[in-house]
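WARN  no MSA supplied for this record, continuing single-sequence
INFO  ligand: magnesium ion
INFO  echoing inputs
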Amino acid sequence: MGPLASLTWSSRFLDETPGDEQVNGPSRQVPGVCWSRATPFIAPDPKVRLWSHSMADVLGLLRGEAQSLAGGSLVQGMDSYAQRYGGHQFGNWAGQLGDGRAITLGEVESSDGVLELQLKGSGHTPYSRFADGKAVLRSSVREFLCSEAMHHLGVPTTRALSLATTGESVMRDMLYNGNKALESGAVVCRVAPSFIRFGSFQIHAATGDEATLRALATHTVRHHFPSHTIDDDAAIVLWANEVAERTALMIAHWMRVGFVHGVMNTDNMSIHGLTIDYGPYGWLEDYNPGWTPNTTDVSNRRYRYGQQPQIGAWNLARWLESLIPLMDEPESLESVLDHYGEVFNQHHNDMWVAKLGLDSWRESDQELVQELNTVLQTIETDMTIFFRLLCDLEGPEPDALSDAFYDLSQAKSIDSQWREWLANWWQRVGGEPNRDAMKAANPKYVLRNWMAQLAIDAADEGDFSVCETLQELLSNPYDEQPGHEDKWFQKRPEWARNRVGCSMLSCSS
Ligand code: AMP
Ligand code: MG
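INFO  complex generated
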């Protein structure tokens, strides 16, 4: 364990892909490159407030070095840059986007292979467009807590090493409604094998820049998909199949734990199939597949919970299109979409086997799952509590599920529907559901929107103890942790029903 300077740093991405001649500079279009060198801004009063010990152990890093982790002080070996990418936002091609509020410090060797360290919120880059490149404490707490919680849930994700406050105030219009306010600035240091996205490829295909596209694909495959090449059409299809598989697996996990990403634009789709860019995400409390937490998306609800698997396919299709310039016969890419569908269905069936404690998947289970989906949506029912209580059910009686219902009198009115479904389920599992499998698939604790908000409210007052409690709690999300039940194994409290940050979130951060 040592300081940042003791790590073994490299810059493979900079070495192997074309970059911008200019360092820093104004917001601008930067054609023909994958990156621009950018320097983090100097935080006036940096303080490390949250720290992931498990991430630090992987890196072999000691806690501290606020100056570097809040930006502003590069150590020997770092060569900082912002990545250039494009993307489809809410279904429309948006052109060049890029790391507008993220700066990569470099890549380091770790016990999990080479990992990229990136600061989010560390100031302006050529890709910041009209914005300042900064992040506020509210959104940084949400990214730090959620990415670590997802990791411990077993969901593929980028990680967070640290959260530092900068000592600076940042002006934000949280709901884009003209009510601006000063908020504390913060920087999260996040970690992943790379932050290459679907949109990283799209930008070069969109501008007809085959050479840069090829350089990026070669780099990506060489380091991140070492059993693949892009030597010919067949090889590219095999690689694309693996990207499809990882994407399908990630989204199947989201569905299992009730996670709604909120902004599944193609610039927010990691090539590794990692959950990336925690913005206006949310967790299903009431089991409503039509729900999205993102206020920017309320009219179409394009990125609602129940549509995430289809959006995964749509995004994948856009990425596949970006590979066309590398192919002799691009038609062969079509099979990748079918592959995505098959792999997703397989994971989804496996997910239901585990969530319901079945022995294996049978075609007839489709009906059991469909009926469950119907009853779950009839009245307001808490997804996490329902599935967790189901793990311990001793017979096909709905009484032991009552804590999952938001309105008990309503629950009485559908008592017979529950009895019928439970009887079918009980019969299907022969009175012996696989409880261990169920408890490993149905988390007891997730980062409910109101839990994150309580942590933010305290952090805004300089008290990071709630963040730390949640960090600890959510590092063992499948354990009973009886001392925490009364506070955190709870449905959404009434105060959170319509509160900004709990039921409504915007992209503003
Ligand atoms: P997102 O919706 O968070 O994925 O962001 C979309 C694009 O907007 C990305 O290119 C971001 O880098 C950029 N962006 C978002 N917030 C800021 C900010 N505060 N300053 C600069 N760029 C930003
Ligand atoms: Mg993004």
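The two ends are 33 Å apart (CA to CA).
INFO  checksum written, moving to next record
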